[in-house]
């Protein structure tokens, strides 16, 4: 199953088959609940559904490969049987391979191939699109690596190096999608700079996936008078604003938890860019 083709930014809905993801851990941990949620996201306007079985929130511990496979493969198989375009959110080559065999149409690797040396070769063999995210380390220590002089220039340079390496291992240029990795070894200031610098990242010549949904920098922006950050699940309006701006700036896809408002936002951005009409 190929990826959707639209004359607008795509919307990727999130299905976390985990007990500990930062914004919705445990809600979709049951297989049936995860499948139902994925179907609901499509009804709300998701172009594809991203299924993940391992939390990458700051400080999260890794799960075993066997556990990750048990979480994601049945959900992917069930969703693709219903005609849903599915991506798999994984850092493991064997999980990526099994997911594609189960029907996944895209591999979304937050480590950009750094966590598993076999990932690039596996993705190359599958031929599916591959999201290479900017990454500096696993969740338990990534916050200590959020040190930059010029975050846009450095993320761009590090992504360019990763692209060269994965292509050297057989991944085709046409397979590659880039993700600046908002919140991964980046603080709020870094995230805002990267969003404002989407045009600079796009100069690398690859589609861009933007994942700002419910991340802490939005909650901190919306903090109350006492400085308490807005809860994750109450930052969806801000997420929609980021989606509209990212789509206007040329993002290929946005990854979001609350699909409906973001599906509206990408359509508004598309109409704005073309000057109205359908």
Brief synopsis:
The protein has 278 residues and is an alpha/beta fold.
Distance between the termini: 27 Å
Radius of gyration: 17 Å
Number of strands: 8
Give the topology string: H per helix, E per strand: EHEHEHEHEHEHHEHHEH
Return the structural class.
Answer: alpha/beta
Individual helix count? 10
Oligomeric grouping of the chains: single chain
Binned, the helix content reads 40-55%
Strand order of the largest sheet: 6-5-4-3-2-1-8-7
The profile of the biggest β sheet is: 8 strands, parallel
**Low-pLDDT residue intervals, each spanning 5 or more residues:** none
Mean pLDDT: 92
What descriptive keywords fit this protein?
278 residues; alpha/beta; 8-stranded parallel β-sheet; 41% helix; 12% strand
Describe this protein's structure:
By secondary structure, the protein is α/β, with parallel strands linked by helices. The chain has ten helices and eight strands. The chain has helices at 31-43, 65-81, 93-101, 119-126, 151-168, 188-196, 198-202, 216-221, 236-248, 259-274; strands at 10-16, 48-52, 86-89, 106-109, 130-133, 176-179, 209-210, 253-256. Strands 6-5-4-3-2-1-8-7 form an eight-stranded parallel β-sheet. The two termini are 27 Å apart. The mean pLDDT is 92.
